[in-house]
Amino acid sequence: MELDLAQIKIPVRQRTQIDDKKISELADSIQAIGLINAIIVDENNTLIAGECRLKAHARLGRKTIRVRKLSDLSEWEKQVIELEENIRREQLSPPDELAAKLKLHRLHVAKHGKVQTLSGEGRPKWKVEDTAQLLGISSGNMSETLQLAEAMEKDPELAKAKTIVSMKNEWKRKQEIKGRQLLAMLQVGQQRDKAQAGGTENSSPATFPTYEKAGITLVNTLCVDYIKSLPDSLISCLLTDPPWEVQFDDQFGSDPKTGLYLTQEMLGVLYPKLQEGSLCWMFCATKHLIRGLIYNLILTAGYRIYDTILIWHKPHVAHSSNPFRELKNDYEPCIVFSKGEGRNFSRPEFAVQSETIQGRRVHPAQKPLGVLRTIIELSTVENEIVIDPFCGSGMVGVGCKELNRKAILIDKDNRWYSTAVLEVEKCAESKQTLK
């Protein structure tokens, strides 16, 4: 069926920009071999598909063009045309655009069948490259689009993203987490196999006073000595508050760099034991922070420091004895750094954490369990290992226990080691009671 070009109506929602070079190439092709596929119009002669072919005919000076009515098409042709039209609409939402491209690709794959292979399974005749060419995008872009669309089918939460870029980032973040979860489970299995073969739960020598229970290991020794015995790339997160001895230094005039030296040595021996991208959190003395001492020792050890620190705000702190001369310090800073380029956080989070310590304080430098849990959740997945080389109260171990993470807690002081063991035991008993 032929129609005059003047009778065909082009709707506003069709593409507004068409490559002039492509129109010229198409016109040359039509001049040489004729129009292979007729354009599609509805019952009112409104163009449904084939605007480029229509413009090529106009450029050739032809008055008519071969058309097919929408009502004459097969169901497959109608679906394909509808999808191609929808994909070209600017107002299509990111999830709808992805779903449309995936459906279009699947329709062509199903239509064209498979080519037999030696394995007998066959491979599709219609390839990703064919869909990419059909839509005028690169094969790489099309391949990533189809992967993202399939991921959205399995995880509808991805569709909540406002843009395809943000959806892609979220998908990659979740893929990374799944990979880390699998790796952590494999490590647990390897440790279990070693234990059944007569080894210890971890590969370190049994020469230190040690408590081990359900993935929580506490060691009573100098942290540097024990860390050296650990396998490389074992640890997923550092969370600690080193003994800066600030109050002792101020009162008794001891060397103010004692805590700094110990922390610097710890960071140095820990570096190879951390996995690439591991997140590190270190509470610190405000006076050391503002003087730049801690930043220098972290950078010297080879770590990358984040621009933003975490702040534990302490509600209900009373004013100092001289409130008109000084600001009351009602917070503790925590520097965030990483080995190499840091992993993504597990969720968005604010820098200021306002929490109080619940129940009895068992250590002078104890942190609220809520703050520690937040950090552990942001930095790790289940079964990954968190290390606290100066464990004090043992609350990092309690948080790990509650969140199904592994933990290595170290303290050279017999009193604090015993305190940490007691707190972890209480947590284990509480979880057992809940079960």
Helical content, roughly?
40-55%
List low-confidence stretches. 200-205, 247-253
Q: What's the total helix number?
A: 15
Task: Give the total of beta strands.
Answer: 16
Principal-axes shape call: elongated
From the alpha-carbon coordinates, what is the Rg to the nearest angstrom? 32 Å
Coarse structural class: alpha/beta
Average pLDDT reading: 85
For this structure, what is the CATH class of the largest domain?
Answer: Alpha Beta
CATH architecture of the largest domain: 3-Layer(aba) Sandwich
Integer tally of domains: 2
The biggest beta sheet is recorded as: 10 strands, mixed
From the N-terminal CA to the C-terminal CA, the straight-line distance is: 75 Å
> What proportion strand?
15-25%
Task: Give the full name of the CATH homologous superfamily of the largest domain.
Answer: Vaccinia Virus protein VP39
CATH domain fold name of the largest domain? Rossmann fold
Protein name: Putative methyltransferase
GO molecular function, one term: N-methyltransferase activity
Keywords: Coiled coil, Methyltransferase, S-adenosyl-L-methionine, Transferase
